[in-house]
User: What shape does this take?
Amino acid sequence: MPMFLQQCPSRFTFSASSPSFRTQISVKSTVFCCLSPPSASPERRSSQRNEIRLGLPSKGRMAADTLDLLEKCQLSVRQVNPRQYVADIPQLSNMEVWFQRPKDIVRKLLSGDLDLGIVGLDTVTEYGQALTTKPQSLGLNSAEIFECKASMMSFHYPRNIWIRKWMSRVFEVAKNLDVAYVMYQVEELQPPGADYICSIGNDDLIIAHDALEYGKCRLSLAIPKYGVFESVSSLKDLAQMPQWTVERPLRVATGFTSLGTKFMNEKGLKNVTFLTADGALEASPAMGIADAILDLVSSGTTLRENYLKEIEGGVVLESQAVLVASRKSLIQRKGALDATREILERLEAHRRADVQFKVTANVRGSSAEKVAEQVLSQPSLSGLQGPTVSPVFCKRNGIVAADYYDIVICVHKKELNKSILQLRAIGGTEILVSQLTYIFDEETPRWNELLSKLGIKAKDAHA
Assistant: This one.
């Protein structure tokens, strides 16, 4: 039967029952978190508030870039006191902004304390996805499983060595992964070696926008350039090295144990152990703490300066900033879906506008059609759909006439100089260039994708 554990355990409650010596033993377990007493479960806390909560990174480059993006989208975050961790966005009613560590944003989305968040895809994937394993993979052998079986059937529950060891390992894994919840299940007592399932995480998280175009990096495996690794250039080479055994596995220092484990299993690498570490991982091989590292890489400069190298096939994940949401909040919390739509609309419209300039110019011509022909004859002046052409009325010798026509086009920023030269070539003058804030399209594809993920029809979302 399913049992739920929370991190930061401060109290354990166990019970066991069996009608007879030979029947199946059921185990119930309750673990309370010191930060979340039983009277205030995540579901209850979440349902008691009306505000929509957006989690943003509290420090570092990701935090600065996120605030910058929101400001460009006219969604400036108003923080009265820089020491406070709560703020608001005046343009979004009933929206609270909470500054948190990226992994805490994911954890609080899972627990229902946040509804939306902006973090790196690497953080979402590491801390928000389900991990399924067996007691054996946590280091428990058949003898320990058999010992558990015997002690439980003799009803000496405090001597239940196996379940206590398993729980200890589960909490150890949970701590390393920094997940909010752990769920494990003992289905029934079977012969040694039977499958006992441990699941960490859940599937409530949903990515609303997967490409915010900043915070780009990759989660990559790196090894020393020297010693036994000097000739190793690929993951295949690394796997074929004879040094790695059960007694002496490949030691990988990382803060991404979940993704690392999944990656190594998928690639068929055996005899690998992960050492949990945060910060300055590049020093681990030189200090003899680890043989390799699994870390986020942007330019690769830090790796090179510490005599480390990436290897072919060693990239676990390409990452950038994403907008992530709680599926439950989007469906159940009033206003959450509408707020998410407005954020998506502004993000998408800004991203379209950010690479374009609005260019206006006066061009002499006999008619709007003739001027339009001149403009469209130039390869860089076609705009998004075509030029807007309107007459410019002037009064000459007491007569009002349209000798010039005003044209308005959108020009890609990379094509600006070429476009100016082409405008001049057709007689353009008084050329003005303006920065755009938004370009709204007929539909926002990511909004429709989000509705599809939620199983909501567009007409129902508009209702």
The longest strand covers residues 399-412. The chain has a mean pLDDT of 80. The two ends are 41 Å apart (CA to CA).
